[in-house]
Description:
Elements: E1 6-8, E2 11-15, H1 22-38, E3 47-52, H2 58-71, E4 75-81, H3 84-93, E5 98-102, E6 111-118, H4 126-138, E7 152-154, H5 158-167, H6 172-178, E8 181-185, H7 191-201, E9 205-209, H8 229-238, E10 242-246, E11 253-256, H9 266-277, E12 283-287, H10 293-300, E13 304-308, H11 312-322, E14 326-329, E15 333-335, H12 345-359, H13 363-370, E16 374-381, H14 384-397, E17 402-404, E18 409-413, E19 416-422, E20 428-435, H15 438-451
Bound molecules: magnesium ion.
Magnesium ion binds near residues 105, 247, 251 and 252.
Amino acid sequence: MAEELIISISGMRGIVGENLSASVATDYGSAFGTFLKADYKKDDKLAVCIGRDSRPSGQMLESAVAAGLCAVGVDVVVLGLVITPSVGVMLRQLGCAGGVMITASHNPLPYNGIKLILDNGVAPSVDQAAKIKEIYFAREFSYVDSPSNGRIVYNEDSYSVHIARVFDTIDVGEIADKKFKVVLDSVNGAGGPITKQMLAKLGCEVYAVNDEPTGIFAHTPEPTEKNLTGLCDIVKQQKADIGLAQDPDADRLAIVDENGVYIGEEYTLALAAKNVFSKTKGKAATNLSTSRMIDDLAREFGCEVLRTAVGEANVAGAMLGNDCVIGGEGNGGVIDLRVGPIRDSLVGIALVLQLMAESGKTVSQLVSEIGGYAMIKEKFPADKNKAAIIMDQAKQMFADAKIDTSDGCRFDLDDGWVHIRTSNTEPVMRVIAEAKEKDVARKYVNDILALV
Ligand code: MG
């Protein structure tokens, strides 16, 4: 059964050969170009840079989007095979009015997508995304005559520019002295080449698997525990210091400790934040569904955590608005504004290696120092009406909790928290609970499920 083409604030996502075709991508490129032109003065010549992950349909979609942009008079800089955060770095480096990343992130191979980024490095706001969607469906493209068509140029500087930006956040020499042994699993996405290059410059001995960017994923691409058993085994066999796993567009990072134990994506942000907090007192931003570990660390170092609605653009927006020193999401997405307001596995890797180098501690030691929580996630079917009723009942049930309603409801209690929200893409509600004791987290989830 053909699925619907999804157009959301982060762009368009669909199945190649079914609903995501070259003509759809060209029109979407024209819609984005038309939108950007409306914001600029008439004489400004605009440029947009385009990157793609390793999916075999990437070049087709890259060419199609480029054609759509040129047709409305926008110049295009083709970056080629890159990771999503590199598009953010390059658009600012080149002074582009926007960026496009061809990726379906952690979705399986049949999918691809077109992700839009504005000149501030963040996805369009809800209103801006609605405007782009309106232009796309109404086909109100501001096509130009022949001499005014956009031109295409090619740029191969993404790896070196991005790595240099990441190295501004760490002490390269201090890490290189440690000669860390690292196992890297890039799941045949776009991450392999640039990450191997960065790790080599950091003096690491790298054992890379699934590093060829073929787009034919060696395992289910989301970097979760059940998909990374192979990586865990190799870390143990190789007696490596750390195992690193990226999703196909390498904005997410999961870590395996020196014993071959998957530590959980929530620790990626916690470890990165620990390194940053230890050097700079400041604010951090993360979404309502992310672990309390970052709050514990912020308290330890005299820092502060801001919570936002779920969605990378919300976290990035809060970081930009509050000059946050670190931020991101519990799914392994670390954001450091010194590099850019986009989740970036390279930043995550660099900050964690810096923490290891400075402290002289292993990953498992650092993890046990931070301590942990049990987190339980469930989802259940619920339409809008049912969701509203459940939210009301939950508010009565957790009347003593500190309640945040900026995205669904999050109830903060002394021994844990529970967050319920409706999904943006499917008619389901998600419930996430976290507590020191697993039984307590389970109880909170069950309390919500009992309302269903
Ligand atoms: Mg991703």
